[in-house]
Amino acid sequence: MKEKIYTIPVNEAYDKDCECPLCELEKQLEYEAVEYALGAAMMEPDFRIESNEKGYCNRHFKQMFDAHNKLSLALVLETHLIELRKKLDGLEKAVNTAAAGKSGLFKRNTAAETAAEDISAVFGKVECECMICQKINSTTKHYIDVLLYLWATEEEFRAKFERSKGVCLKHFKILCEAAPKHIKSDAGKFIAALAAKEKKELERIQEDIHRFTLKFDYRYNDMEWGTAQDAPLRTIEKISGYITPYDDKEKN
Ligand SMILES: [Zn+2]
Ligand SMILES: [Zn+2]
Fold this sequence. Notes:
- With 252 residues, the chain is mainly α.
- Helix content is 71%, strand content 0%.
- The longest helix has 28 residues, at 187-214.
């Protein structure tokens, strides 16, 4: 049996009636990571050094902004900004060379192209090194490993999996990629079972979103909403993962 630390949350997520249990797990991880970044992490020098260097992506800055802890946020921003300014200073030589319009006789690139590449390399990294994304991704890898293991070894979990509404397409892809690495001989069966489930669940979503559009036609005024009332949100979440705003977390 894999570590309980991961099997319990995976089982609990599969007990919920939701469009994607892995998104449910990520939602919780995300909430905890935002709380941590603005709370306990403030007292962790190692974390602060790393977060000053790496920073956060736009999605997670937005959630930190919504978390109503503006002093912690400002302190995080202040020290992160110092590091960002150092990165910009480090590019000064390339920028000056570009301004002078120099281009080495035998060099493939112009000075402007080289400066643009250097800037892109430095600031492109800032967006994809987000501390919260990294935390979520590394823990989700364990959840996926455990999910596959449970599916391959526990009858009870496999029944839960069959009763579930599948996963979002983001996690569909990730699970299929992971299956051959983690459950080897059972991977084919798992991929087939998940693909069949996704086919059925996307059909259900399609019916819901169509029903939603019909409600805007006066001829269908009296039609019951059924499960279609929140179809746009659930359809987006089924296609690309959850978008529930940070503030709504408590309601889930
Ligand atoms: Zn998902
Ligand atoms: Zn992020």
